[in-house]
Amino acid sequence: MRNLVLIMQLKAMNKVNSVKEALKSKSGEGFVDTAVKILMSVVIGALVLGGLYLLFKDTVLPTLTQRIKDMFNFKG
User: Fold this and answer.
1) Is pLDDT at 10 greater than 80 in this prediction?
2) Which residues are listed as membrane-spanning (predicted)?
């Protein structure tokens, strides 16, 4: 019985020491860093998609629709 108590005490002390080390540690990535990275990628992605939409809306789509109309109105 005494050995069981000693084993449990050692396990508890090891857990306490590992928690202390984890709290003292200054390395690693936190939740705030990850949230900022995700937010930055979403904003940059939205800007890229907005730019592509503007490019296709003003430049590509009018010429594309005109080419399609010309292709089907072929008089041969």
Assistant:
1) yes
2) 35-56
